[in-house]
UniProtKB/TrEMBL annotation:
Assigned keywords, A-Z: Membrane, Transmembrane, Transmembrane helix
Sequence intervals crossing the membrane: 6-28, 49-71, 83-104, 116-134
Record-given protein name: Protoporphyrinogen IX oxidase
Length: 170
């Protein structure tokens, strides 16, 4: 079961990451096109990559990863770090969707600098996640957040930082 889930997880991640890396390049191709069939074709291909390949792959990657949480020992620091990076990757995924919303309007454009910046951001975050998962670095959270993995630690931290917190009663 774990092997099958990991296989699904990795296949979905390959599609998700590949789709994200190729999108800035597709966006950049918009610069050479004015209204017409070529622009419509690029629009269709870009939507196909984002809506029908990359987004469903992201959904499967997150769903299979969530299932894996219950099968593997994930209450360790490197996994928390991975989740932070996955959150950033998901936000950068949304950025591509937002770019696409305006890109194919008559005056839409996407500069080479934006393309390089977006593609670099994808590459950095993807490589960082893969490195963390494969190297599983030992991070000793007791050095900077001693209560991070302690039951009730969050409540104590909130209490120390913000004083007495009370639930408003109607
Ligand atoms: C919400 C999203 C995700 C969750 C909940 C999740 C969760 C997990 C879990 C629990 C494992 C098993 C860990 C272990 O071997 O102990 C795993 C494996 C893995 N994950 Fe994720 N993951 C997510 C997204 C990602 C992403 C975005 C990437 C890469 C870009 C990624 C790359 C990997 C790799 C390469 C493995 C295999 C590690 C190994 O077998 O040694 N995951 N994931």
């Amino acid at each position: 079961m774990t092997i099958l889930l990991k296989f699904i997880h990795l296949a979905a991640i390959a599609l998700w990451s590949g789709g994200l890396i190729v999108l800035p390049f597709l966006f950049w191709q918009r610069r050479a096109l004015t209204t017409g069939p070529e622009l419509d074709r690029l629009h269709r291909i870009t939507r196909l990559v984002y809506v029908e390949l990359t987004s469903p792959a992201a959904f499967v990657a997150i769903a299979s990863g969530t299932a894996l949480i219950f099968l593997q020992a994930t209450f360790v620091e490197w996994f928390s770090l991975k989740m932070v990076l996955v959150g950033i990757m998901a936000m950068l995924h949304v950025v591509a969707g937002l770019v696409m919303l305006n890109l194919f309007l008559p005056n839409g454009h996407f500069s080479r600098l934006s393309g390089i910046a977006l593609m670099s951001a994808y590459l950095v975050v993807i490589v960082a996640i893969i490195w963390i998962v494969l190297a599983k670095p030992h991070v000793d959270s007791t050095l900077f957040a001693p209560h991070l993995f302690e039951p009730g630690g969050l409540a104590r931290w909130l209490h120390q930082s913000f004083g007495d917190t009370r639930m408003p009663t109607p």
